[in-house]
Design brief:
- This protein is mostly helical.
- The chain has 13 helices and six strands.
- 56% of the residues are buried.
- The chain has two domains: 6-364, no CATH class; 375-405, no CATH class.
- Strand 4 (394-395) and strand 5 (398-399) form a beta hairpin.
- The strands form three sheets. The chain has a two-stranded antiparallel ribbon with strand order 1-2. It has a two-stranded antiparallel ribbon with strand order 3-6. Strands 4-5 form a two-stranded antiparallel sheet.
- The protein has helices at residues 6-36, 42-56, 62-71, 80-99, 106-121, 129-161, 167-207, 219-235, 238-247, 253-273, 279-293, 301-329, 333-354, and strands spanning 377-379, 385-387, 389-390, 394-395, 398-399, 403-404.
- The protein is globular and about 70 Å long.
- It starts with 5 loop residues before the first helix and ends with a strand.
């Protein structure tokens, strides 16, 4: 293993924490539709996704090269403290959007954090704007549109092919198709998102003098990043799974199969080309496309609007947090310690807030089918979430039966 200084060690650990948040933030990308349609039980779905994310992380390093040497100029005098500040910005924004149940882009949070920290510490000469436009911004606009159009067409074709068959006849096939396509999305996610953390750690090693410029990620970096994202995936980002699985549209098995297949195709193609796109945006676009593609399907555009707003805010918001962190970190050791303390405090506060309204495998699908909003729930005797019994209006002949939400 390369010689590691204390600050590089801190950056490596922080990068793996980001990788972990990336995993549970993006579990919904692969398994939201599979869980919402009942093709797999929630715990089984996230376990399968975790294993395939782990496998996918070993299949390519093209995206890692884009991060380590494409977006940030590794020869511009960037220090590991700058990368640390960028990671803090990405982690805090990831957790804020997770708390809100918004499937924002972990990738763009990372890009925004690195760019914001670099601009404050080094200036514009530390950023490759042409690479940002070609490999980040253009894919961010094109990928969800392409995935959405493909999913809409696939959904329409799927329903047409199965028009003369009953739901019972097609149920088994759709379930197998959803499991297979969900597995493919998980594998694709590993080939793209796990690479980003590998690229960040490699960039830190290069800037700290532990690796030569242009080096590929060392084996230990690949293994540790793969394990971190797999663990995060297994724990499951249930809040975002609820939004993507039930909040955007009422997904039926044919739609789930079409959306996941379209997402996997776009992600794998982008990984092959080295485009560090947002898998969240791709999968969200596919789900919206599947809602449009179904005759009579309904897309909850208010929820979609909130998601798109979060997408637009991610780069600048993560950049602002990272820029402030970089300003402090540049002041010396006390600044780095202050950033670390503030980052931990922010994460702990967000986690505590999430415990007041828990969402987990037991209530992830408890959503009103009309509004897409979570139904009223309360804690049961064993801490599990149970439906709330709401009295129905009285009638002329006496009280009506209890209505369960």
């Amino acid at each position: 293993m390369e010689h590691l200084t204390l600050i590089i060690g801190v950056v490596v650990v922080t990068a793996l924490v980001f990788d972990f948040t990336n995993g549970f933030h993006d579990t919904a990308n692969a398994m939201a539709t599979t869980i919402s349609t009942g093709a797999l039980k929630p715990k089984t779905a996230v376990a399968m996704s975790a294993v395939l994310n782990l496998v996918g992380a070993f299949l390519s390093v093209e995206v890692a090269k884009t991060i380590s040497g494409g977006i940030i100029d590794e020869g511009s005098g960037i220090q590991p403290e700058v990368i640390f500040a960028g990671l803090v910005g990405a982690i805090v924004w990831n957790l804020l959007t997770w708390l809100a149940g918004l499937p924002s882009s972990s990738s763009h949070a990372l890009f925004g954090g690195l760019i914001g920290a670099t601009l404050v510490s080094v200036g514009w000469n530390g950023v490759h704007m042409d690479a940002i436009v070609m490999k980040v911004l253009i894919p961010a606009i094109a990928a969800p549109l392409v995935a959405g159009i493909a999913a809409a067409a696939a959904t329409r074709l799927t329903y047409r092919l199965a028009a003369r068959r009953s739901a019972d006849q097609t149920a088994k096939g759709y379930r197998a198709g959803q499991i297979t396509s969900g597995a493919l999305v998980s594998l694709a996610h590993g080939t793209n998102d796990a690479q980003k953390t590998m690229g960040v750690i490699t960039l830190a090693l290069i800037t700290g003098g532990s690796l030569a410029p242009g080096s590929d990620p060392p084996t230990w970096v690949i293994v540790s990043a793969a394990l971190a994202i797999a663990l995060g995936t297994y724990l499951g980002g249930w809040r975002i799974i609820r939004t993507m699985g039930k909040g955007l549209t009422d997904i039926q098995p044919p739609q789930g199969f079409s959306a996941q297949t379209s997402s996997a195709t776009v992600i794998l193609a982008s990984s092959h080309l080295g485009f560090a796109l947002s898998t969240t945006q791709v999968c969200s676009g596919s789900i919206m496309g599947s809602g449009v593609g179904k005759k009579g399907g309904v897309v909850r555009w208010s929820t979609a609007g909130r998601m798109v707003a979060a997408w637009g805010l991610t780069l600048p918001a993560a950049g602002l947090i990272a820029g402030a962190s970089a300003f402090l970190a540049d002041q010396g050791d006390w600044g780095v310690v202050t950033v670390a303390i503030l980052g931990v405090a922010a994460c702990a506060t967000i986690w505590a807030a999430s415990r007041r309204d828990r969402v987990d495998h037991s209530n992830v699908n408890d959503v009103d089918p009309v509004t897409g909003q979570a139904v009223a729930t309360e804690g049961g005797a064993d801490g599990a979430v149970e439906p709330v019994s709401i009295p129905a209006p009285r009638t002329a002949t006496g009280p009506a039966p209890q209505a369960t939400v």
